[in-house]
Amino acid sequence: MAPPLCRLYLITPPRLEDLAGFGHLLAQALDAGDVAALQIRLKDTPDEVIAAAVDALAPIAQARGVAVILNDRPDLAARLGCDGVHVGQEDAPLAEARRIMGKDAMVGVTCHDSLHLAMEAAEGGADYVAFGAFFPTRTKDAPTRAEPELLTGWQADMLVPCVAIGGITVDTARGLAAAGADFLAVSAGIWSHAEGPAAAVKRFNEEIALGLADRG
């Protein structure tokens, strides 16, 4: 069966104090519904701590067919056997990330609210472009605010998949799926959900399905 036209893309919390405990939560979340990818995003963290997180979490995700993407660091992503890397505008350039990761790895690029940046990334060989933030977020500082129409325009003209990111919750997932997002990148909306991460994944998938029906 073909995967849905819009899928969940989970992002870890910025700090993981209990790696084993988070691993259990992650397994429950991934078993609760469709998830395309897990981005391991640990900010201001020593390399050895990032490596320990990848060693613990990657097997859980990859055993379930979920791609593992490391934030910011193509050098570490390649060394640790991640499926891909996500780079921001202030991180390693796309060409350098591709050179380090190889042609078969996934490389995604933050493009804020800019079609220009997204087109440059697509032409440079990015596997996906990420737009946002669509809503206020406490997970990271978001310098730009994107509108859903950006997704609709991108979907109409471009083949490279687009990721919506920034403050996305169960309540806002449907609208972004309807607007044209190929993936919804979610952190706090999963891990801080009142009913727990597994329930959140289930609810997100329900809302995504409704959004795809709206998209027609």
Provide tags for this entry.
8 strands, 44% helix, 216 residues, alpha/beta, 8-stranded parallel beta barrel
Could you explain the architecture of this structure?
There is one protein chain. Helix 1 runs parallel beside helix 2 and helix 1 (19-30) runs parallel beside helix 9 (197-215). Helix content is 44%, strand content 17%. Strand 7 (162-165), helix 7 (170-179) and strand 8 (183-186) form a beta-alpha-beta unit. With 216 residues, the chain is of the alpha/beta class. The model has no long low-confidence stretch (mean pLDDT 96). The protein is globular. An 8-stranded parallel β-barrel has the order 1-2-3-4-5-6-7-8, surrounded by 7 helices. The protein contains 9 helices and 8 strands.
The tally of strands reads 8
Distance between the termini: 19 Å
Helix content: 40-55%
Order of helices and strands: EHEHEHEHEHEHEHEHH
Shape estimate: globular
What would the average pLDDT be, to the nearest integer? 96
Q: What's the main sheet like?
A: 8 strands, parallel, barrel
Structural class: alpha/beta
Q: What spatial order of strands do you see in the largest sheet?
A: 1-2-3-4-5-6-7-8
Low-confidence stretches: none
Please tally the helical runs, counting DSSP H or I stretches of 4 or more residues. Answer: 9
* Beta-strand share of residues: 15-25%
CA-atom Rg in angstroms: 16 Å
Summary of the model, kept short:
The protein is of the alpha/beta class and 216 residues long. The protein is built from nine helices and eight strands. Helix 1 runs parallel beside helix 2, helix 1 packs parallel to helix 9 (197-215) and helix 3 runs parallel beside helix 4 (94-101).
